Amino acid sequence: MDTIDALPLEREDPFEPPAVLKELHGPLHPMTYADGRPGWLVTGYAEARAVLDDPRFSNTSQGAAPPIKELTPPEGLADLVIPPGFFIAMDDPEHSRYRRLLTGHFSMRKMRRLEPRIQEVIDDRLDEMARAGAPTDLVRAFALPIPSLVICELLGVPYGERARFQDTTARAMDFDNSIEQRGAAAAELMAYLSELVGSKRSEPGDDLLSGLVAGGELDHEELTGVATLLLTAGHETTANMLGLGTLLLLCRPEQADLVRTDPGAAESAVEELMRYLSIIHIGPIRVARADVPLAGQTIKAGQTVTICLPVVNRDATRFPDPDRFDVTRQAGQQLGFGHGIHQCLGQQLARLEMRLAFPALLRRFPALRLAVPAEEVPLRQRATVYGVAALPVTW
Question: Model-level pTM?
Answer without folding.
Answer: 0.93
